[in-house]
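Hi R.,

Here's the input for the protoporphyrin IX containing FE complex you asked about:
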Amino acid sequence: MDRPELCTEEEIIKLVYGFYDKVRADTLLGPVFNSHIDDWDKHLKIMVKFWSSLLLGTGSYSGTPMPKHIALPDLHANMFKHWLALFHETTSALPNRMLAERAEEYAQRIAQSLWYGYQINNNPNRIPSGLANG
Ligand code: HEM
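And here is the predicted structure with protoporphyrin IX containing FE in place:
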């Protein structure tokens, strides 16, 4: 479903590029991303498609994020929480509050589901933990 009234593609580009500027400069997450992503230009274009598909219903993203994250070594809950904190920092600065809210909702849900999938695949004998409260 197209929802062109929520925001423009330009606003999504700003959100994505602003967020990954923070990620790349971050001492916890920067090294994880930088050691797996050779071509940032390509990654950012994929991420714009991903967020455009979610927020505008463009259908432009056709990847599979779960296996890509499951394959990353040594991810921890604190990394997903920190990812969300940086994302929140980015959305907080957006003048388009409706866009900020929708993006935030999706980020929370997807981070949670990626973290569950990660734990179930990489630590199948442990009960998976959520991301809320410590
Ligand atoms: C600890 C948190 C996270 C880390 C360290 C992380 C790291 C990465 C890395 C290194 C890649 C590139 C993988 C590759 O190309 O092989 C990637 C791709 C991606 N990530 Fe994450 N990520 C995190 C959380 C999230 C969250 C919360 C979302 C969504 C809200 C997300 C969405 C994506 C998407 C859509 C891709 C592109 C997959 C594709 O190539 O189609 N990530 N991530």
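One thing worth noting: Helices lie at 9-25, 30-36, 40-56, 65-70, 77-92, 97-122.

Cheers,
M.
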